[in-house]
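Structure request: Large ribosomal subunit protein mL49, Pseudopithomyces chartarum.
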Amino acid sequence: MPRIQPLLPLLRQLPAPRPLCRFSTASRLRIPQPSPAQSSSEAPIKSPKEAARAADLAAAEAATDADNPNAPAPKPVLPSKRSHTTIADHVQPSSTSNPATSSRNSRPAAPLVTLELPPPKYHVGRTSTKNLPVYSDYKRGGNLHLTTIRKITGDISELRDELRVFLNKKDEDVKINSLTQHVIVKGHHVPQVTDFLKARGM
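Returned structure:
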C-alpha cells in the first residue's frame, strides 16, 4: 500500500474528466422528460398558490385572445415553398358559343380625356438633340426634388398657371425664376410635364 499514497497527491491536482463536467445531449445520459400534454393533464395542483397562478395564466391567455377581433393572419408562403403552378392552370376557358352574351358583358373602352385649350401664348424650344428642356434637380441633400423647364419664350406666367392646374399644385409650388426665366416646379414631374408640353404642341 505504500505505493498508492504517493500517487494520491498527483491525482488530486487533476481536474474531473471532461464527460462529467460538460453538459451532454447524448440520449444515454438524458433523463426522460414527460411530454407537455401529459404533464399538464397529469400534474395535480399541490397548493392554493399554484391553483391561483394557473387561473391567472388561463385568464391572461383568454384576455389576449379576446382582445384581438381578427383571426391571426396566416404566415406568408416563402417562394421556395410555393407549389410550382402556372397561370394557365387557373385560366377558365372562354365560351365562344354565344357571342351575344359576350358582347353584352364587355364594356366599351373609356374615351381618353383631352383638354380643349386655346393655343398657347408661350413656346418651349427644343434642345439641340431635339428633346424638351425639362430637367430634374435635387437640393437640400437630396430631399428637395425640383423640376425645371427652360428655353421658354412668350408668356411665362401662363405656362406656370397651366402647369399648376395640370399638376394640381399650390401657388407657392410652381414659381418663375425672374433672372433665368425658368419655371420651377416643386417635386419630380419630368414625365408629366413632358407629356403636357407634347400635348400642347411643343
